Amino acid sequence: MGVFARDRWLLAAPVVFFLYYLIVWMKLGPEPALGSVPVRYEPPEGYRLLQRVTVRTTGTDARTLAAVVAQLAARRCMEIELQNGNYKLSQLKQDGSVVSALAPEEARVLEMLFEDGKEIILHRTREMT
What we know:
Strand content: 5-15%
Number of strands: 3
Shape: elongated
Order of helices and strands: HHHEEHHE
């Protein structure tokens, strides 16, 4: 009978699968054309920097923290000064509207930075030079 006589059904399996998927494809139809996808240069409405980075990378890093600190300084929540090669962060007086406009994670970073006082000094390390 030959080598493939008892395993003949194995050769029919790909044909059966092909016919099954052909019937399903004919019933459901092909995928619709996607069309053009617009490029977004701005984040979606309501997303802040820290949220986007956390979602994209599933975590944060030192660059993200530096960006949030710079954003807080731009919003006049803190001041950054260079003193003797070190960075001094000073918390500025804020009104309630500025703090309420911050995203929850930004408010938490601001709270954590200044929980021990109104000023902190960041000392440079070898990795920073």
